[in-house]
Amino acid sequence: MLGYIVYLALLILVPMLAQSKVKKTYKKYAQVMNSNMITGAQVARKILDNNGLYHVSIEETKGKLSDHYDPRKKIVRLSSDNYHGYSAAATAIAAHEVGHAIQDAESYAFLRFRHTLVPVAGLADKMSFIFIIAGILLSAMNLVLIGVVFMSFAVLFQLVTLPVEFNASNRAMSQLVSSGIIRNNEERQTKKVLNAAALTYVAAALVAVAELIRFASMFLLANNE
């Protein structure tokens, strides 16, 4: 019983706490202007140009914290607040997304591996619970096993995402400092924004691993009865 309570807490509370931390940190540093008074879009363009990535374009996208890099179209997409904003938060997030563009240009191994997993992970995530629930309802452990195998691919995707995101943040910090976009106490502010964002990926990975362990244990226990 205690183990199940811990599992539910991990499943529900960890992602909630991570999201809360991101929103709180973003809100705080969205009010702090960067010393150079340049927008997130300008930050992204400067870093891209410094790395010879003139072919990578920058677009404004709808939504809150919907920022991302599209490797297929070679586009850095920034949410409106970060595209037009002069804040420390906009600076950090824009640089992070450009970090992915630099990874792409350098064929960063973990990024390439994650790209190959995208179609498999998406299908696996959907199919895993279908097989697991069907197996439980029908008392067919072979279906549960198939679901666990599918789930393992989804978990692998979450785990591979971690080094990709941490590396992008490290590249962001390096580029911001070397280009003179941030200075002195701004480094601490930028790290706080990047670290808060990284918590969401850590939380997702923890939940995914916890789910895999739970259903794999269920299969093993059923087979040993």
Automatic annotation (TrEMBL):
Keywords annotated in UniProt: Membrane, Transmembrane, Transmembrane helix
TM stretches of this protein: 129-157, 198-222
Domain of life the protein comes from: Bacteria
Cross-referenced InterPro entries: Zn_peptidase_2
PANTHER family, per database record: MEMBRANE PROTEASE YUGP-RELATED (PTHR36434)
Protein name (database record): Zn-dependent protease
Organism listed in the record: Gracilibacillus orientalis
